[in-house]
Design brief:
This protein has helices at residues 2-17, 19-55, 86-95, 131-134, 147-151, 161-167, 210-216, 241-256, 271-314, 316-324, 329-362, 378-404, 408-413; strands at 62-65, 67-70, 79-82, 84-85, 99-108, 112-114, 119-121, 123-127, 139-142, 156-159, 177-180, 183-191, 205-209, 227-228, 230-235, 267-270. By secondary structure, it is of the alpha+beta class. The strands form 3 sheets. Strands 1, 5, 6, 7, 8, 9, 10, 11, 12, 13, 15 and 16 form a 12-stranded mixed sheet that branches. The protein has a two-stranded antiparallel ribbon with strand order 2-3. A hairpin with a 2-residue loop joins strand 11 (177-180) and strand 12. The longest helix is centred in the C-terminal third of the chain and has 44 residues, at 271-314.
Amino acid sequence: MQFMTDVFAQIFRTLWAHKVRSFLTMFGIAWGVGSLLLLVGLGEGFRIGNKRGLSEYGENIMFIFPGRAPVVKGSMNSARYYHLTYRDYLDARNEAPHVRAITPILSTNDVHAVSEFATASGELTGAEPQYSGIRYLPLLQGRWLNHLDESQKRNVVVLGDEMTRHLFPGRPAVGAFVLLNQYRFQVVGTLKRVGRGDDNSTNMRAYIPFQVMSTYFPIKGEGAYDAISFMNYQPTTAEDHLLAQEEVRKVVARNHGFDYRDEDAFEGWDTVKQAQMMGAIFDAMDEFLGTVGLVTLALGAIGVINIMLVTVSERTREIGLRKALGATSRSIMLQFFFEGILLTLVSGLIGMGLAGGLMLALGKVNGPGGFDPPRLVPMTATLAIGCLTLAGVIAGLYPARKAASLEPVEALRQE
């Protein structure tokens, strides 16, 4: 125990005797570790933010919208507009084996909502009960629409968070009544807030049974009989999303008389494909940021190695003197070993602490939609500190071993 106390006392005396050099060494290590963690943390924050943004729509969600189908194959000049219909939904539900769940959607923005306390405008959506299993719609109070609401065409409504705040400011909403374009509806549920920033469309929606929506608020216009706004569906697994898309397209193309292989005839959105594309982009970003961080870390390591080599070389006479006074090669090597570990490990932890503090401060600032603040990645921190510690220890031990192997007289002669 006394031996270790003497070793660490000698280490601190040596570091204090060379304050500027010790500070520069520690600064280089802290800078390298902090830069690497911050760069990798930025990429991780972007990745998590994008994943969170997609998850707030739902898991593996796919959309198909009305489109324009060419009368003459390949000629969009001859294209005609077609509506999706409730029959398309029923056929896709029955004939698409790779579709796990599907729902028709009717929506309109031409609705004025009035409660006992206030008025509001937003989007009115007609959906079947399975819609809440496809889309991410967390309940705050009450319940979601059920099959009895649908079959009995009940005038019930579920309000989004922002719609609830506007119509019932500071008051209970469940059980109250609202007028939607003069039709009276009872509020049976309210939803939690989803999304953040400017992405507020889901919160400004009200949901009613699909059959009620088609009765009171149908799509109007030529060829709009039985029309729906779009369909939401999920594949059986994420890997089956292209098969599910093809099966749904085959049904729609057959019902509307065009070739399902014509990509221009369809409008849709595949969140599975988007997630894969964004994943590839963020993988490339991670590689780039990681490479930049590793270069910074390597420069820090080179600086540490140079300083340690110079430090040990300058102390060759000191090593010779200590050997002349009875110090063993083992005790000398042990001192330089602990000195290298102490210098690099403490500096690395300081760099990690500074990077973590900066990330914590950035976490309180609302970034653009789809991006989260930087995240500290523990594995990266461990690798960065470990690599620099190893570099510092090797850089100190190699010349120290060489000097310690000299005879005391030879070591004392070294300049």
